[in-house]
Amino acid sequence: MYVNLIKGGCAVRNDIHIVLDSIAVAEETPLRDDPRCHVVPLLVRHGDTEWVDGEKSLQEMFAMVEASGQLPKTSQPAIGRFLDVFTELAADGKKVIAIMLDGVLSGTVQTARLAARQVMSEIPGSDIRVFDSLTAACPISGMAMEVLAYAETGATMDELEEYLKGLIERTETYFSVNTLDYLQKGGRIGAVGALVGNILGIRPIVHIDTAGELVVVDKCRTRKKVLQRMVELAAANAPIEAVYVANAEAEEDAETLRRAMLELFPGLPVLVTGIGTVLAAHLGPGVIGLFVRRQR
Questions:
Q1: What CATH number was assigned to the domain covering residues 16-40+77-169?
Q2: For residue 272, what are the β-bridge partners?
Q3: Do the beta carbons of residue 74 and residue 95 sit within 8 Å?
Q4: Transmembrane segments in this chain: where (predicted)?
Q5: Whole-angstrom Cα distance, residue 98 to residue 127?
């Protein structure tokens, strides 16, 4: 069980630290105040305005898009951000496990790996291991909490690595957008396809496969059917040990998914969060994600 080192917990192991990127929305999870968790933010730019993920709200960003008709651009962290974090932790004798956004969606994991290799070559005895989560949003924080909990058993870095690989392999990701406009403007779907899809109310349900690739697994004509189908797809992975729900200004739909999964799997832990401006810049308002982790 995860124990926050600060909030009155009994965790005693402080040599294992976690590094996440801002896609994991750690600030909306129990990791928020944990000194063992460090976040490297991605960047967003709209016109002449640039900010790090988390500095602006979704409402602010969507208002900027509405006013200008232009989508924001996003970028991964500079390698220097990872070098700074890894160097500070390694110099302090900490062992580091970094869990990054799906490598198909962003090059962040590759940048983190380059930084880790450089720091380990410069600081003797340092141990920094970087992992591609093959997912996005709050399940990455879920993985981090599980790793920290397992570390409390006295697990070695090799054991933690194998444990995390299992968490990644057993995590299934499903999401759907409420408008195709952002995907179309971002070049991920043709203008005609977006127009027809919006007129007919067609919404794709996307799954991230074992290679981290995005695969459309179904298409529905109403939001209600989207949510029902997402629950069916997620539940097909039973037995399940954890559920995560992420949304961009779709709190009612997130609650619908939470309740539906709890009806099917009473007592199962469910973590519900929003998403940051980086993901929202590509997926638009109303995007909803449902993530499950299969039991071993």
A1: 3.40.50.10440
A2: 245
A3: no
A4: 268-292
A5: 11
pLDDT digits over 244-284, tens only?
999 999 999 999 999 999 999 999 999 999 999 999 998 88
Measure Cα distances from 137 to 27, 60, 289 in Å. Answer: 11, 20, 9
> What pTM value is reported for the model?
0.92
Chain-centroid distance, C-alpha 137: 2
Amino acid identity at 91:
A
The closest of 37, 29, 22, 119 to 77, measured between CA atoms, is 22
C-alpha 7 chain-centroid distance: 24
CA–CA distances in Å: residue 186 to residues 80, 190, 250, 277: 27, 10, 21, 15
Residue ranges of the chain that CATH labels 3.40.50.10440: 16-40+77-169
Residues of the chain with CATH 3.30.1180.10: 171-294
Q: Which two tokens stand for residue 122?
A: 């410069």
Phi, psi of 268 (to 5 degrees): -70, 135
Q: Which residues contact 230 (CB under 8 A, 6 or more apart)?
A: 174, 176, 205, 257, 288, 290
Report the candidate in 180, 167, 164 with the shortest Cα–Cα distance to residue 244.
167
The first and second tokens of residue 271, run together, are: 């973590």
Helix (H, G, I), strand (E, B) or coil at 175: strand
The SS3 call for residue 3 is: coil
Distance CA 264, CA 279 (A): 29
Rounded to the nearest 10 degrees, how much is the dihedral formed by the CA atoms of 273, 62, 108, 187? 120
- The position carrying tokens 């600060």 is 6
Q: Which ranges constitute the DSSP H helices of 189-250?
A: 191-200, 223-235
The strand pairing partners of 242, in sequence order, are 293
Q: Is the dihedral of CA 156, 101, 204, 62 positive or negative?
A: positive
Residues 141-156 pLDDT 10s: 999 999 999 999 999 9
